[in-house]
Amino acid sequence: MSKIFFCGTCLILLASCSVGPDYKRPHFYSDEQLQQSLGLTTPRAKISLYWYRDFNDQLLNKLIAEGLKQSTDVKVAIERMRQARQNLRINKVKYLPTVDVGSSYYYLKDSRAYTGEPLSTDYFQLGFDAAWEIDIWGGGRRLTEQYKALFAATSANLQNVKLAITAEIATTYINLRQVQEQLHIARKNEAIQSNLYDLVKQKYNAGLTDDISYRQAEYLLSTTRETIPQLEASVNSLQNSLAILTAHLPKEINSMLGYQDDNMVKKTFSYDTSRLYSMSVDVIRNRPDIRMLEYDLMAKNAAIGQAIAELFPNISLSGFWGYQSKNISSLIGSSSNTYNYSPVIKLPIFHWGALVNNVELKKSLTKESLLQYKQGILDAVSEIETAATNVEKEYQRNREAKKALDSQQEVAELTNIKYKNGLIDFSSVLTTQQDLLNAQNNYITSNANIYTYIVSFYKMVGGGYNINNIPDTRKAASNADGVLCKG
User: Fold this and answer.
1) Alpha-carbon distance 434 to 70, whole Å?
2) Which of 231, 254, 432, 452 could form a disulfide with 183 if both were Cys (CB 3.0 to 4.6 A apart)?
3) 3-state SS track over 163-203
4) What would the DSSP string read from start to end of 263-286?
5) What's the pTM?
6) Of the CATH numbers 1.10.260.40, 1.20.1600.10, 2.170.120.30, 2.30.33.40, which one belongs to the domain with range 14-95+137-312+358-486?
7) What fold characterizes domain 97-134+316-347?
8) Quick check: 453 and 392 in contact, CB under 8 A?
9) Per-residue pLDDT tens digits for 254-265
């Protein structure tokens, strides 16, 4: 009895170790380096999941909520997460004991030439088969660690998909409002230029102006009218894009996406640009796509330990307990009771280097993932810095665009008055009207750019899908259903 206890204790102690490297998060750059590179300051504001609500556009909020709920991309990401959870549940029990119950019937009729008599045999069996491959070197635990990391990666992927859907809907909506406003401006200018054309035509017919002025007025009106069909087509295309992003058929939601008098791009969005630099440096490593890269690195690192475990001896136990009898009527009983057990030790000796090369392969795959993670950090820092700079520079451009528009509107009004009074020729009106249309479009474009650059910034910093700390792979899938509900 003491020998059995001793052997069992040894097996338990051996099974508590895991070969291979334990995962440690690589730190290519210190927090101070990252903070300095991005120019981050204090206080460190938290980023809300609902950052887009600052735009104060209820229809945009509704579209994003609908997209996150109905998007097929989001639903696919959820299904992949569920698949990863099932893979985890399947693989985490591979190294646990298994028990099967089974029954069998065996019948044999011997050859007369063999026995000299026509003999036959009946054989019945009922019982339990058990098997256990003891996870002495931690290969099973490394396998579980690997699938926990893969499951966590699907959770981060779901967040990344939601972030991408949110940003894409917001950007498409802003582009729609921009084109709608440009179409509105084109139609207003068409009306003004049509009146000017009628005035020039009257003067031309009365012999009060020359052919050049008449043709210039005609050219100005035709040029403006030329842009309208193209803008109308763009409006329709963007409306259809929003329908698809929110899982509707094209044109199903066009009625709610018509032009609004309080179009968001008519005026400059008021935004405190100091918020671009008041975030925590953790947003870089906690960005969903960066977490996906790190979880992949965790999984690859765990695979090294699993490969190393295959180099060591393997111990497995199998056994049977049940009943055997030649007659089914006497199958269940103490006299038919039977059992067996069979411990097996398997030591890999010669595999043509396959096992060793497999370890080297896993190490190389881990190094590749490490480099991809490092590149992901570099890309994230660059993207955040670029996005913040774009917002700041667009505000500078916007101020000048507004000044230019105000000045050109005054010039256009004065030019029209002078022309009607016969003080200048129509070429001055032509130039002024073209410049005014450009100034109007530049200002609207700049207003829209501010919105889109802010959207890009929040996407680059993770859009609120950030966590304080990356969870350990041993805890990453402890509550899959809870993650699904929160996700």
Assistant:
1) 44
2) 231
3) HHHHHHHHHHHHHHHHHHHHHHHHHHHHHHHHHHHHHHHHH
4) -GGGSPPP--GGGGG-S-THHHHT
5) 0.84
6) 1.20.1600.10
7) Outer membrane efflux proteins (OEP) (2.20.200)
8) no
9) 889 999 889 999
